[in-house]
Amino acid sequence: MKSDVVEVSETKKNLVIEVPREEVDAEIDRVTRNFSRSARLPGFRPGKVPPKVVKQRFRDEILHEVAHELVPRAVDAALQDKGLQPVDTPDVGHVDVREGEALTFTATVETLPPVDPGDLASIQLRRPKVQVADQEVDAALERLRQRAARFEPVEDRAVGDGDTVVTDLSRATVENGEAGAGERHENVSIEVGSPANPPGFDAELTGLRPGDEKTFRLRYPDDYAIESLRGKEIEYRVAVRAVRRRVVPPLDDDLAKEVSSAETLEALREQVREQLTREAAQEAEARLRSDLLEALAARVAFEVPAVLVDRDLDRRTQELIGRLLAEGVDPRQAGIDWAAFREDQREAAARAVRATIVLDEVARREDIAVSDEDVERQVASLAERSGRTPAAMRAQLDRDGDVERLRAGLRRERTVDFVMSRATIAGE
To answer: Distance from the CA of 28 to the CA of which of 3, 165, 195, 227 falls in 20 to 30 A?
Structure first.
């Protein structure tokens, strides 16, 4: 077999491969013999059909199987012969197999050129200072205070801004002036003034009292966030069951005991400061690691293969979908332009790929590895966070083909730690 490499770019190569006529004919004969054993043709006993007849009768099937056998084998041999490691499945164009002729075809492969991580000590980083201002502590205490708010019944006045109205509510789409059957919900709590309320909804509730009923119609703007409601007219019917007002407790020792293990407000303040300091330290570490990855990415001068960037974009898209689902949001109804999202993330994805390429080369040179025990510990950690058993988590990872991805992620995290230990970091 002969093969030549045509350089298309730093990362794209065309392998021009020629399989000798003798090898092609030998494979055709082998496949023909296999067909002869099972061929059923009128006038011939099973297994006794002459090869010439088999070739004529099953020509297309035989040549298809010959190509299926020869091409992958030839591509693998050519890749090994040329020392190429593709980052994706080689793209093989039209293959025309003919008896008595050599088989020549081209396989396009995406590869990575050699990467030199360079002197890791020359990476200059600055560790951000960890500081928590008094104003941040005050803001955190205020958030705790707001979360501790209670709801008390309102009996001496009508609904006003900030009140929570408990209603039985039905809504129906209006078409040609008539409301349809719609849908009904009971004991729905609606906060007057909430940004989530439909436009005009608050004004219709204001002034109502417990026991009141009201029917009204609202038209949604053409640019409303929820696509299915854009430009629609909806008829609402509300029956007010109760009205409650939100009462925020004072910031004192009693609140400290209610929301924490602290006995006094000052003790709670110190707990909050310690928590904010830990969070700030984690953010500083994350920023430092991010800066390190940016520095590594800058050491890759070539244009990375598009297939690797697309894989990272797929990962980012799936992560966003996962966050939306965790928040109870249907990704299809979130109003996200997914094509625009991917395009907006493309440059960041390319930088992430470049950093990963350098990390993998450092890991190879330094023989950084992850053991099976390391993987199982990570599986157990994931299982604990998700409330599942390690066996169930491992089964899912095996089913989704994610075990090796998990191993690669652990290896890269270790490599980041290694590079961090070699880099020059100011502020330490």
So the answer is: 3
